[in-house]
Amino acid sequence: MSADILSQNEIDALLSALSSGEMDADELKKEQQEKKVKVYDFKRALRFSKDQIRSLTRIHENYARLLTTFFSAQLRTYVQISVTSADQIPYEEFIRSIPKMTILNVFDVPPLEGRILMEVNPNIAYAMMDRMMGGRGSSINKVENLTEIETKIMSNTFESAFDHFREAMEDLIDIEPSLAEFEVNPQFLQMVSPNETVVVISLSTTIGDTSGMINICIPHVVLEPIMPKLSGHYWMQAEKKERLPEFTSRLEENIQQSIVPIVAELGTSDISIQDFLMLDIGDVIEMNQTIQQPLIIKVGDIPKFIGQPGKLNKKMAVQVLGTLEEGKEDGE
């Protein structure tokens, strides 16, 4: 923004040039009206919308929480994992951005086609292995000289960690992740063509005193079948469907615990105001129904049942004989 703000000297020079004729105001207007050319890099095609990137970020935020819980239990030390960024870039650019020697775990995710890559910084990987071997979680970087035992420990650890990706994706699709390759040199790994668009989700990871990054690389071809489900509209509909049964059951439970008044009417009668004012103790009011007719039982102010008067355990009671038809009023 500051580059667009002119100083007072520049403003004075511009006004002086316009007044002296060195600059033509009409030409400046024409330049502004001309179509602006925007540079587009075809090698860096944007195949994911911002809405879809936000959905992927949300999924991986959930996955980061699952990983934090998993590694905390496995390593028995302080672990904190969180999403720092989610970007779409060419696969070649991602390969150039990671270390020349690093921990690369390639996973199959059927029924989706293609593979997903989990790149783990060697400092993080060695800190994890040191903790599992009984150490304090110190980190050394000798990834180019991994022994068979170290390779097996690391591959098993990250395969178990990626298994939680199934839970993070369950709202979109049921997948069965499995480790397909374990590699340390990115140059020997060619999952897709160099110009293929991939989404890279970077997870900031802290294990004890060691910090580093875990990058998850997902090619476009993997996500293509579920692209419509990555829209915000889908998530809102899913949340609405999720909340509806819970809301309904809670509403039913609250209704069942509600207290409502029940009144059994012995009958009704119509009298004049004058007769009402003249009522005294001992007077008799004639009802508009006989003792053989059933009583109307109201729930609140709504007639719901018919019954007959009686006694139960020396107390006055009403026995329910039946249910009134919907909308039927007393006296009908």
**Total beta strand runs:** 10
**CATH H-level homologous superfamily name of the largest domain:** CheC-like
What is the CATH C level class of the largest domain, in words? Alpha Beta
Count the domains. Answer: 2
Q: Please give the order of strands in the largest beta sheet.
A: 1-5-6-3-2-4
* Helix-strand sequence: HHHEHEEHHHEEEHHEHEEE
Averaged pLDDT:
80
Using only C-alpha atoms, the radius of gyration works out to 38 Å
Q: State the CATH architecture of the largest domain.
A: 3-Layer(aba) Sandwich
Question: Rough shape?
Answer: elongated
- pLDDT < 50 runs, ≥5 residues: none
| N- to C-terminal distance | 78 Å
Number of helices: 10
Account of the protein in words:
- The chain has 332 residues and is an alpha+beta fold.
- The protein folds into two domains: 43-234, Chemotaxis protein chec (3-Layer(aba) Sandwich), CATH 3.40.1550; 262-323, Surface presentation of antigens (SPOA) (Roll), CATH 2.30.330.
- The chain has ten helices and ten strands.
- It has helices at 8-20, 25-33, 50-75, 91-97, 122-132, 148-162, 165-168, 220-223, 232-256, 273-277, and strands at 79-90, 103-108, 115-120, 178-183, 197-207, 210-219, 262-265, 295-299, 302-312, 315-323.
- Strand 8 and strand 9 form a beta hairpin.
- It is elongated and about 105 Å long.
- The mean pLDDT is 80.
